[in-house]
Amino acid sequence: MWAVLTSDDKRGNRWDPEAFLATGEADVEEIMGRIAEHSSASGWAVALDFGCGVGRLSQALAGHFDSVYAVDISPTMIERARQTNRFEHCEYHLNAAPDLSLLTDESVDLVVSLHVLQHMRPSAARRYLLEMHRVLRPGGHLALHLPTRPVGWSGAVRGSLRNRAVRARPRLLGVPGMEMHGWRSEKLGRLLRNRGMQLCHTVDRAGEHWKARDYLWVKSPDS
């Protein structure tokens, strides 16, 4: 759980499971509220939790949707999520492929990916964003949280050095690590608008080392 929400005071397995899941419920309620405020969408059949970890968001999504698909690249995360799954209509899938081929075109009403895409190379994140667009039905929504840029010039330097060190860890220590990449809003906007997505809402988030933004996008009916 700490690997999903890295609060300093939760190191050493200090997350209470119910408190951890409550953060997911709060995030999902906020997303659903934004959709209700900025869109006339109706009918919540299928949701996708991309980068689901141990199920923080997917368990909350199961209270709103008829079916929830949750994917992650980590076998350990998927195993833990399945062990604690409380809903038969919530399915956890190991997805190490560079796509979302387990889902058909225009089959999902909502895709949620929070605190995930920044930990992969931008080229891989771009491929997954295009896959999210593919699986969304017209009128479906995409909720994202992404860092936009480091805080200050020292943050940019620190981030670059950190990514280099992370890439060297498997070779030198045999231990994987997570990179950290920002996505400027202009770059994300060009990618999604060119595919017929419309921006509904944004919220800026300020962190110690990174500035970030929450996004809510909707897929145009004719895209």
| Shape label | globular
Q: List the secondary-structure elements in sequence, H or E.
A: HEHEHEEHEHHEE
- Major β-sheet strand ordering: 3-2-1-4-5-7-6
CA-atom Rg in angstroms: 17 Å
Distance between the termini: 37 Å
The helix fraction, in percent, is 25-40%
How large is the share of residues in beta strands?
25-35%
Mean of all residue-level pLDDT scores: 85
Q: What structural class do helix, strand and pairing data support? A: alpha/beta
Sheet of most strands: 7 strands, mixed
In total, how many beta strands?
A: 7
- The total count of helices amounts to 6
Give the uncertain stretches in residue-range form: none
Structure description:
It is a single chain. With 223 residues, the chain is an alpha/beta fold. 36% of the residues lie in helices and 26% in strands. The protein contains 6 helices and 7 strands; from the N terminus they run H-E-H-E-H-E-E-H-E-H-H-E-E. The chain has helices at 17-38, 58-61, 75-84, 122-135, 152-173, 185-193; strands at residues 46-50, 67-72, 90-94, 108-114, 136-150, 197-206, 210-219. Strands 3-2-1-4-5-7-6 form a 7-stranded mixed beta sheet, sandwiched between helices. The longest helix is centred in the N-terminal third of the chain and has 22 residues, at 17-38. The relative contact order is 0.13.
